[in-house]
Design goal:
single chain, alpha/beta, Rossmann fold, binds manganese (II) ion
Length: 129
Amino acid sequence: MPQRAHRLMVKRVLVVEDNPDNRILITDVLASLQYEVLVAVDGEEGLTKAEAEIPDLILMDLSLPRMDGWAATQKIKANDTLSHIPIIALTAHAMVGDREKALSAGCDDYVSKPIDLRELASKLAHFLG
Ligand code: MN
């Protein structure tokens, strides 16, 4: 496949995660799956980068400084330019209430922490093809 065509097909994933260890883990996994990775360290930066970059998918931690993941998701899903972007919430402690809040905030799916990397890969493939 020509290099140019390949580059156009690379899917871009925005990771919004304040925990550096999780960020590195997720970034490494995404890179190994041939996704291009964009990173934000809090909810406000996540919203700003979503607006600037229009990624193909967002992985959204929920517990974040400055603006939490629920609020960032609501703002993204309320924006006509961004609302089509699938958002997968990263929910801590498998909290049932967190999941329900994430889905009602507009998240399309969720992955519980500690992250099962095969589950994450399969959900990414489901939304990104
Ligand atoms: Mn967090």
